[in-house]
Each structure stands twice: as structure tokens, then as C-alpha cells.
Design a protein that fits this description.
Elements lengths: L1 H25 L10 E3 L5 H13 L4 H13 L10 H5 L12 E3 L2 H17 L3 H7 L7 E4 L10 E7 L2 E6 L4
Antiparallel strand pairs: 1-2, 3-5, 4-5
Helix pairs in contact: 2-3, 2-5, 3-5
């Protein structure tokens, strides 16, 4: 009796297989999402910051995304970096995504990055509030948890948030 049931099950599965394959082939392909923003060097400061947050941390929670925004803005206060958000974001060899113009297609993630960017940009000159909210402790560098960049040994690790490790110079620690 058991062999009969097993044979019946096997026959059922095999008889459905061609139908399943045909169903997959006949379903329409997804259209690519529409472009909600194009990240480019001519963006205004808030959009450049939002692009960096989006590209570097859109899979992170709000704290992780804010941390990337804080690092970007913390660089403005360090003499080793340019003095505008756009120039910090598009500085050569800093953020790999900036090598090409990037089309943002995930509207929900873009909205979050944009709101975080607006908020951080609005508090950037309110030192006490800014320092209190900065989860990176003033970091100006970060990398993905899985990588081990050569430069990390010359810095002080401040915190690990989500998928990123944050650092600041030894003299600032």
C-alpha cells in the first residue's frame, strides 16, 4: 500500500512539473522600477548626502543609515577633507559608487535616505545636539564588517553598527 501511495505522489509531482514550468515562462517579466533620482556631482548638498546614505547603507536600520550620514558630515569638520558635502561625497577614491552616475530606483529607501539627509543637514551646525546624536562618536571613516582594509590599523575603532565598522584618527580619540 505504501509503495502505491509513493508512486501516486511521484506521478502527481511529475505530471505537474511541465505545467509549472509553462506557468513560469508565460508570466510577464517585471518592468524595471522607474528612476526616482539620479545621483550626480551637481546635486544640491542634501541630495548628495542622501545619495551617499542610500548607496552606502540602504539595507541598514535608521541608526546605521544615520551613521553613514554623520561620517559624511564629520568629514566637513576635518582639514583632510573638502569643505562642502558634494565635494566630500564625490572626493576621488572615497566612495566607490561615485565613479559613475547612479540611478536610484528604490523609492521607499530613497525617501528614508532623503529624510535622514534633511534632518542631519539641518542639525549640522548645532554642536551639542549633533554630538549627542552621532552614533559614531565623531568617526570620519568606515568599512563593511567583512572587509579588512590596510588603513584601519592606523585608526581607532569607535563602534560597529549593523554592517559597518567606524573609525576616527588616533589623535582625535
Amino acid at each position: 500500500m505504501r509503495k502505491g501511495v509513493a508512486a501516486l505522489l511521484a506521478a502527481s509531482v511529475f505530471s505537474l512539473a511541465p505545467g509549472i514550468a509553462l506557468a513560469k515562462e508565460s508570466t510577464p517579466k517585471k518592468k524595471p522600477s522607474r528612476v526616482v533620482h539620479v545621483c550626480k556631482k551637481t546635486d544640491v548638498a542634501v541630495d548628495a548626502l542622501a545619495c551617499n546614505i542610500y548607496m552606502e547603507s540602504r539595507g541598514e536600520n535608521i541608526t546605521g543609515q544615520m551613521a553613514i550620514g554623520f561620517v559624511t558630515l564629520n568629514r566637513l569638520k576635518n582639514e583632510k577633507f573638502p569643505t562642502s558635502v558634494r565635494k566630500v561625497v564625490y572626493q576621488s577614491s572615497q566612495f566607490s559608487w561615485t565613479k559613475v552616475t547612479y540611478n536610484v530606483r528604490d523609492g521607499d529607501s530613497w525617501k528614508v535616505a532623503k529624510e535622514i539627509s534633511k534632518f542631519l543637514y539641518s542639525i549640522r551646525n548645532h554642536d551639542m545636539l549633533y554630538k549627542q546624536l552621532d552614533p559614531t562618536g565623531g568617526s570620519i571613516y568606515f568599512h563593511n564588517v567583512g572587509s579588512k582594509p590596510y588603513w584601519a590599523k592606523y585608526l581607532v575603532k569607535t563602534v560597529v553598527l549593523g554592517g559597518h565598522v567606524f573609525y576616527k584618527p588616533k589623535e582625535a580619540a
